[in-house]
Amino acid sequence: MPSFKIGRVCADIQRELADLFREMKDPRVSKLLSIVKVDVSGDLSYATVYVSAIEGYDKTVESVKGLKNAAGFLRRELGLRLKLRKTPELRFIADNSIEHSARIAGIIDSFDLPPEENGDDNDD
Asked: 115 to each of 54, 69, 104, 106, 112, how far by Cα in Å?
């Protein structure tokens, strides 16, 4: 039986962390950092947060170092904003999915596709 509460908690954590990332003053944390996915354990004690930066994987790794140092602050702020019995411990993981997606989009855009014909070529 699927747990809808875990899905809601993941969405709430993602929304609030995105807001907290904008308020952070740590220069290591990129301003163009986005949360790719949040996984919460079944007992809501751990939350794994996958983050990615548009500037590249190196900037993402640097941002994760800053986020790990601020994990206590972020957990406390989440506890104040979300009404949970137990605020999950945050784990941050660097993800390069945004960079990978941009590279694929660039490859697709590099192809020279012929313009589409508007007429119907069927010979009846």
From this structure: 31, 52, 21, 19, 9
DSSP 94: E
Q: Are 76 and 43 in contact (CB under 8 A)?
A: no
3-state secondary structure of 4: helix
56: left (phi > 0), else alpha (psi -120 to 50), else beta?
left
The confidence band for 118, taking pLDDT boundaries of 50, 70 and 90, is low
The helix/strand/coil state of 116 is coil
- The reported pTM is 0.77
If DSSP states are collapsed to H, E and C, what string results for 14-68? HHHHHHHHHHCCCCCCCCCEEEEEEEECCCCCEEEEEEEECCCHHHHHHHHHHHH
Residues in the chain: 124
Q: What is the pLDDT of residue 83?
A: 85
Cα→Cα distances 74→4, 64, 82, 87, 96, Å: 24, 13, 12, 10, 22
List the domains of the chain with CATH numbers. Answer: 4-103 (3.30.300.20)
